[in-house]
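Allow me, if you will, to draw on your knowledge of protein folds for a short while. I have a record of one protein: its chain in single-letter code and its fold written as discrete structure tokens. I should value your view on which stretches of the chain appear to form regular backbone elements. Thank you for your consideration; the sequence and its tokens are set out here:
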Amino acid sequence: MSGQAVIQGRTVPTQTTKSIYWQGVRDGAPFILVIVPFSLLFGVVATEAGLNILETMSFSVLVIAGAAQFTALQLLGDGAPTLIALISALAVNLRMAMYSASLTPWIGEATLGQRAIAAYFTVDQSYACAITAFEQNPGWSIAQRLAYFFGVVTPICPLWYLFTFVGALVGTSIPQGLALDFALPITFLAMIGPMLRTPAHVLAALVSVVTALCFAFLPYNLGLLVAGVAGMMTGAQAELWLERRKAARQ
């Protein structure tokens, strides 16, 4: 049950940990529209690449990072060495380190166990919702912040596991003539498009595309690694330049 607090002479309702959890569930629910087809696609593509259901599910449960999973799967399917596939997947997931650093001021005082579980469930969707909610509600306690964070992942992660399993089950029954390869680049385009919100994002994406095309001759798709590094460096430098330019105008 919500109580009341007096803030700047006004009586306003306060939120309980339980209500904040359900707020997180509601904020995470729209992502179901993305998680279901994406996890289903991974299950199908993984079985088409030769993984059995146990291997496919282990991949999704242990890694729980769609972009990295698809990257590793594609490289392994192309015959790349396991080390190259692992390095490429880690490179794709470098953003998780930045997510963790950004969340530390908000949930860094939680117990080691709580932080470990939160780290496992830190994905694009949980981070985006959590950091926005934390900044808008700086008065939340650690318990309330964790409640919100785990509320967001409640409708997301279980469905990621479930529909990966469904995709793995139906994957082997899909006729070979029905190619699904086209779905992978389309999925990535759908993920990346909404993220191009600033000049730094656009410039990083442009440099990545051009670099990937220039280094397409490298074996095992190593050109993608070069493009990723070039894109990140470009984006970081662009943001630094824009911040300095903004500061100079003030």
About this structure: Confidence is low (pLDDT under 50) at residues 1-13. The first strand starts at residue 4 and ends at 7. The beta strands are 4-7, 10-13. The CA atoms of residues 72 and 86 lie 7 Å apart.
